[in-house]
Structures are given as C-alpha cells and as structure tokens.
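Now for a sample.
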Amino acid sequence: MRLTCPSMRISAILKINRSKIANKSSRSYLNNSGIIRLGNNVRIHKGFGIDVIGELSIGDHSYINPDSIIVCRHKITIGRNCSISWNVTFMDDDLHLTSNPKQNHEIIIGDNVWIGANAFITKEIIIGDGSVIAASTVVTKDVPPHSLCGGIRAESSESK
C-alpha cells in the first residue's frame, strides 16, 4: 500500500475553506486514492484520528471534538451543522479480509445531527436530519429523521 501522505503530521493548525484541523497527537492517514472534503467553518479538534482510503465529506459548520476516530474505507458523509462529541468512532468497514469489497459500506449523517460522547457508528448506517444520538450509543440500524437514539445496539424513537 503506497501512501501519498503516510502521516499528515500537522504542526499546528491546518486551514482549508476557513475550516480548522487542530493538532496535538493527531493520527491521520490518507491513502493515494483517499479524498477528504471539508465544507466551510468545519472544526476538528486535537487528538482526532482519521484513516481515509475512501471518501470523507464533512459539511459546513460541523465540528468534531477531541479523541474521535474516523475509519473511512469506502464513503462517510457528515452533513452540515453537525455536532460530534468526544471519543466518537465512525467505521464504514469491519476491516476483516472476509468483507465483501462490492458491498455498500457507506455511512451517511444528515444535517443538524448531534452525536454524544463515546458513540460508535457502524457501517451501512443512515442517520436522518435533526436526530440526536445519545452518549455511549452503538448505532447498528438506520435512524429516521428527528429521532432520539440511545443504548447498546440502539433502537430509535421517532419524534413527532
């Protein structure tokens, strides 16, 4: 595996489209086929980990707090105005050799979504606009728009 940037060591703050990626022990890897798209005013705080072979997109005015991890082998889309708390993990692949490479592993996070601390977002998930994912939730099923979702192997409760 040849990397164009084996480790994006950011010395202080990287600014793209008025977005900020802060450093302090950040662990970031971008494969030569990987793509990262940041909207305007995206903030990714220190201590994050991003491993991108696929395509990662983060919409305008979203932020990711420290110690969160994004493993993107296929495609992860985070919408606009999303608030992602501490230590949240996104993984769009199991990272097993037995995984079917033709399977759609995409994660889609809608606009105006709040994700609480220590949440884990698994592959093949769509979280609808305006939803809230409670702290320490493991999301294994799609979450309808404007829902509150919580627990281990979380089930959503659609708000009316």
